Amino acid sequence: MKKQTAEASLVAFITDGKEHVYRLAYSYVKNQEDALDIVQESIHKALASVDSLRNPETMKSWFYKILVRTAIDFLRKQKKLKVMDDQTIEYLSKGKEDTYQDTDLYEALEELPHPYKTIIVLRFFEDLKLEEIAEITGENINTTKTRLYRGLKLMRIHLAKEDLS
Asked: Which residue of 13, 64, 86, 148 lies most exposed, with the fewest beta carbons within 10 A?
């Protein structure tokens, strides 16, 4: 694929799917600014290596792989330090009762190790097929399936403990 055509296709893909791309980054860092930084860095990396993309049909999984790895690298650098954004701090400081739905579910997801969390987020939040997830994570399909089922089992165990509390 010619570089100019590949770049144009990549820009179109990112523009069309910007909500999905942002949501995936945000699912890792839970912070607007950091998610935007990860998206920006991922776009930069993708544009720099767009000529390595052999098949334009795999652009989505190729870019998601870059995005996931960038997010994980960011978290490693931050050593899982979670900083709340100003809106959240302001909201919580007013003493309002939180009205989040499925908080337990999101907490259970946050407790998972990255390999399990990545697969569950890509499968259920981004609606990707197991084959696409395997390509993004660089694992074979059987490992992907196993991690999906183990991750769901770990979430069920976490949720069951919450119910007993």
From this structure: 86
Distance of CA 143 to the CA centre of its chain: 18
Q: What percent of the chain has pLDDT over 70?
A: 81
Identify the three-state secondary structure at position 125: helix
- The pTM of the whole model exceeds 0.70: no
Question: Quick one: the chain helix, strand, coil %, rounded to 5?
Answer: 80, 0, 20
**Per-residue pLDDT reduced to its tens digit, 110-148:** 888 888 998 998 888 888 889 989 988 889 999 999 999
Domain with CATH 1.10.1740.10 in the chain: 1-97
Please, what is the angle between helix 130-137 and helix 141-164, to 10°? 100
- Is the confidence at residue 21, as pLDDT, over 90? yes
CATH of domain 100-165: 1.10.10.10
Q: Are 45 and 66 in contact (CB under 8 A)?
A: yes
Residues of the chain with CATH 1.10.10.10: 100-165
CA pair distance 135, 121, nearest whole angstrom = 15
Contact 7, 63 (CB under 8 A): no
Mean pLDDT of the chain: 83
Instruction: Write the class of the CATH domain 1-97.
Output: mainly alpha
